[in-house]
Amino acid sequence: xxxxLFAIRxxxxxxxxxxxxxxxxxxxxxxxxxxxxxxxxxxRHGMRFDELLGLxxxxxxxxxxxxxxxxxRNALLQEIATRFFxxxxxxxxxKEIAKERNEYERxxxxxxxxxxxxxxSVRGTVRELLFWMLKCGGPSLSEERIRRILKAGHQTPSIAxx
Length: 162
Prior knowledge:
By secondary structure, the protein is an all-alpha fold. α5 crosses α8. The longest helix has 21 residues. The radius of gyration is 21 Å and the shape is elongated.
């Protein structure tokens, strides 16, 4: 069986199972089943599932994975500030975070960057969260940019354990 045929059958199975649930998977399940039906109707006319789902950014827009990584990075910055530099002024927190990040990037990160998870030696330390932050990719942040992110106060639940 071809991969596309297998994939559409899997998607149909998910939709069918959602439809069998008493609440049909709630709002999310109803949304998914409707999107799949719309895709099946339009695919032969060139409709793409990723476009239908709104996963393709407009001109100059940000990809979903870049936006997700940015949000995750910002939440980790907030968590680092809260857990490791509580009670300090934003400018001091930003300075400390930038200092810790720079030290980590110049040393252990060079070995750790290929790891899937942080090594045991950094668990429970600021470097564990820096590991996850650097895994998000993107450009290195200046102290001023870190301060602005902290000031914006991105309130996202703790995600370091994910």
